[in-house]
């Protein structure tokens, strides 16, 4: 097997897709993990702070996970208030 200067062996390419570890480091305000259920991989992200949106993301694609969580890095936390209507208080 030949190894190139960039450290990749023949037949392998470098991809820019995010890894689970990279996403965990990029989004420290989320707990991100992988679950294997019935032979299918699912990635789950759950916010660790009240008011951080989205609260939960479930997908089988790490690129989709990254795209869903990206806006949360720039958005302020939404403070919880009992005076603001929410889904729990809708008739």
How would you concisely characterize the structure shown here?
The chain is of the alpha+beta class. It has two helices and three strands; from the N terminus they run αβββα. 16% of the residues lie in helices and 22% in strands.
Question: How does this model look, in words?
Answer:
A hairpin with an 8-residue loop joins strand 2 (40-47) and strand 3 (56-59). With 91 residues, this protein is of the alpha+beta class. Strands 1-2-3 form a three-stranded antiparallel sheet, with helices on one face. The chain has helices at residues 20-26, 62-69, and strands at residues 30-37, 40-47, 56-59. Mean pLDDT is 79; it is low at 12-16. The protein has a domain at 20-74. It has two helices and three strands; from the N terminus they run H-E-E-E-H.
Distance between the termini: 66 Å
Main sheet: strand order: 1-2-3
Count every beta strand, where a strand is a DSSP E run of 2 or more residues: 3
- Describe the largest sheet: 3 strands, antiparallel
Query: How many separate helices?
Result: 2
Cα radius of gyration in angstroms: 18 Å
Classify the beta-strand content into a percent band: 15-25%
Q: SS-based structural class?
A: alpha+beta
Q: Residue share in helices?
A: 10-25%
Shape: globular
- Multimeric organization: single chain
Mean pLDDT: 79
Features:
globular; 91 residues; alpha+beta
Lay out the secondary structure.
Blueprint: H1 20-26, E1 30-37, E2 40-47, E3 56-59, H2 62-69
Antiparallel strand pairs: 1-2, 2-3
């Amino acid at each position: 097997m030949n190894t190139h200067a960039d450290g990749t062996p023949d037949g392998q390419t470098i991809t820019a897709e995010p890894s689970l570890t990279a996403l965990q480091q990029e989004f420290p305000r989320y707990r991100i993990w992988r679950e294997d259920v019935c032979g299918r991989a699912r990635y789950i992200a759950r916010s660790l702070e009240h008011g951080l949106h989205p609260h939960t993301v479930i997908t089988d694609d790490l690129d989709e996970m990254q795209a869903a969580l990206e806006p949360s890095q720039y958005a302020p936390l939404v403070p919880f208030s009992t005076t603001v209507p929410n889904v729990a208080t809708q008739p």
